Amino acid sequence: MNWIAWRSLGAAGLLALLASTFFMTTAASRTFYGIDHPVNLIFYYHVAVAWVGFAGLLLAALASGAYLVTRAPGYSWLAEACIAVSFAFITLTLATGSVWARFIWNSWWEWSDLRLVTALVVWFIYAAYLVFRHQAQDGAVHAKAAVFSLVAFVSVPITVASTRLWQSPFHGTSLGTDSVDIHGLAFALSLIGTGLVYPYLVATRWRTHRLADELEAIEAQA
Q1: Computed from CA positions of residues 25, 27, 30, 36, in that sequence, does the dihedral angle turn out positive or negative?
Q2: What is the pLDDT of residues 10-34, one digit of tens each?
């Protein structure tokens, strides 16, 4: 895909998010877990960025594995771009979850909730990846980062399945239960929009790395 196509993808994602916001604010129920409050509508953003962000970490793990097999730098930069964007999405997930919790639980954070705690652990693990990736100067940084990414991904399925593996007095399973009345179209548009914006952001970061590599090659030849 050329750069115009990537930008078109991002624009389509923003339009889908705007449409989702329209249906969310005009037709979606504000009652979740028996509580009627406007902050419940944050669910449509919260879940979308969480799902897409965690899916991006899977893509990063696959790209890291591809790098270890092929040693092609493009895969390494793809993994880094996916992790950087997913890290931003997970940050948004934690932030929106905390805002929701403040109004519904009357607390910004609950350490007894395993979904929150495991998501925070994932956040710290990938923050460490980004710090390591950009501070390491040795020639083996790509391989080391790839191994780091593969090991780090073990934390992701634990977080995703936490509400089904362990009971929590706070964070129950949202989808597939009668306690949450979800507007299907608003949720689908939110998920589609976030899913389209994500690859645009990844492509932007990957393109930046490629241009930086080309510039370094030109400087080395000068």
Answers
A1: positive
A2: 999 999 999 999 999 999 988 887 7
